[in-house]
Specification:
globular, mainly beta, 14 strands
Length: 235
């Protein structure tokens, strides 16, 4: 198996964050800004250097960037970067069962089974499915369709690190997932996150490319976890 080339870090580090705005890297064009619960704002954008069908996402909290990722048109997780750890995760190809946005939207269900390699020197296998529930939500003129998912994160020996279940959303025009409410089960605890979208801004809107999250921030500052939480594959 070959590992996908590391593409994320130089591109994202070239995108400075000012006091009020997130500046897109050169050669990139913004698609949408999504304000979410749990004091998070996400920016979706495309870049000429990535090729057609790819989509980048950068998440910002009150202290700055928390996550960056690159997906392709089928929502395959090509790469992600964590500023907290400095680690870059890349897709190992070929996958046993690649994620397929086309399959999900055509049939209402998609399964996946793939491996991610971390620059920290270990790999994780992700196995699970997404299915459409039939529920929809229109937010600021954008139609979001709800999904149900289950995912297991496995080590090289097949042992389960953790599992995640919950509901997310898809936007067909973006060919992308948007976070929702999830429950993560670790060996010694279970916790829930709610990163439901509450506002969406497009090019020309006043909130487009804002660097400031607006939802639940006072609550999050009073209840920050002592350690970084594991999270689901960030597509």
């Amino acid at each position: 198996m070959r590992r996908a080339a590391i593409l994320m870090v130089p591109m994202i580090l070239a995108a400075p964050v000012s006091a009020q705005t997130f500046s897109l890297p050169q050669g990139c064009e913004g698609v949408a800004t999504v304000q979410k619960r749990e004091c998070l704002v996400s920016h979706l954008f495309t870049c000429e250097a990535d090729g057609p069908g790819t989509l980048r996402r950068v998440d910002l909290g009150e202290e700055g960037m928390t996550h960056a990722s690159l997906i392709d048109a089928e929502t395959r997780w090509i790469e992600s970067f964590s500023p907290a750890t400095g680690a870059t995760d890349t897709l190992v190809e070929p996958e046993a069962d690649p994620a397929s946005f086309t399959e999900l939207t055509a049939t209402g269900r998609d399964t996946w089974d793939f491996e991610i390699w971390s620059s920290d020197g270990y790999s994780v296998r992700y196995v699970g499915y997404d299915r459409l529930t039939g529920e929809t939500m229109v937010l600021d003129g954008v139609t979001l369709e709800q999904t149900k998912f289950e995912m297991r994160a496995l080590g090289q020996d097949g042992a389960e690190f953790y599992s995640v279940t919950g509901n997310e959303w898809i936007v067909r025009d973006w060919r992308s997932f948007v976070s929702g409410i999830t429950e993560t089960t670790l060996p010694d605890e279970t916790y829930t996150t709610d990163r439901t979208p509450v506002a969406i801004f497009g090019p020309g809107d006043a909130g487009f490319l804002t660097a400031e999250p607006t939802q639940d921030c006072a609550v999050m500052m009073s209840g920050l976890p002592a350690v970084e939480r594991v999270s689901r594959v960030a597509r």
